[in-house]
Amino acid sequence: MAKITKIQAQKRKGRYNVFLDGKYAFPVAEQTLIDFRLMNDVELTDEKIKEIQDSENINKAYGDAVNYLSYQLRTKKEIKDYLYKKEYHRDAVDEVIERLERLHYIDDASYAKSFVHDQLRMTANGPKIIQQKMAQKGVPDNVIQDALFEIDSDTLLENAIDFAKKQVRKQSRTSFKQMVTKLRSSLYQKGFDNEIIEATIKALDLEPDEDEELEKLRKLVSKVQHRYDKPAKLINYLMTKGYRFDEIKKVLGSED
């Protein structure tokens, strides 16, 4: 048995140091003092001391978790990883997670809905990328699928079109064929499926401008012609850039 001989307030509000038999033993929160009715001359067994310290550790972990949650919504996995990183024991982490779920401070289904909404509002990411990001955060697959199912197709297409318009402007110096190829690739990389990609390209109503294509081709020929000692090699290169053979012959013929 050990007797409490002193309870000293720390500089941190609501925190106290407990002294047993005249020696510092452990720190506690004010709520722990109340819960265990700790005061001078109370005697504690080793088992009771361990119970107090375990409870204090759980309360501390809970406080850290709530503080972590105060900045933004988190998934269950993110909270667990955060607490493990701070070296809390598994039992304490499990207790904190259970308490947070009971109070609805963490809810992966609500998190998924909010995450999808924010992604659609603030990024150009399509469903596949959104799915990957949620999976990385530990959201269960069935919860992810439920959240993705609620995505409005019109919103998705609108986002894809906005993103595609920017990509078209970025590819203004490339051939029409290469621009469309890169556009499809960019949309795919952003997580859009083929149906949305084709609907996006159709909505943009893209058409090549022959004069513009020839002008871009002339500039490219002027830039790279010196690299090739044979016309065939130059033609092959230009075709890989999306220009048609008849366009290339027309430009090269005018260069002679």
UniProtKB/TrEMBL annotation:
Its main location: cytoplasm. Keywords: Cytoplasm. Residues 107-148 form the RecX second three-helical domain. Residues 157-199 form the RecX third three-helical domain. It comes from the Bacteria. It is found in: Cytoplasm. The keyword Transcription does not apply. Pfam families: RecX_HTH1, RecX_HTH2, RecX_HTH3. Residues 61-100 form the RecX first three-helical domain. Belongs to the RecX family. Modulates RecA activity. This is Regulatory protein RecX. It comes from Companilactobacillus huachuanensis. The gene is recX.
